[in-house]
Amino acid sequence: MQAVHFSIVLFYYAIFSVITLWIILLGESFYNDEPLRVLTMSLTQVGVLTFTSCFNTSGLLFHTIALQNEKSSFIMLISYTSIIYAFLGDIFIFHSNFSVQELLGVSLIAVVILTIVGQTIMGLRKVDK
Question: What is the DSSP string of 7-74?
Answer without folding.
Answer: HHHHHHHHHHHHHHHHHHHHHHHHHHT---GGGG--HHHHHHHHHHHHHHHHHHHHHHHHHHHS-HHH
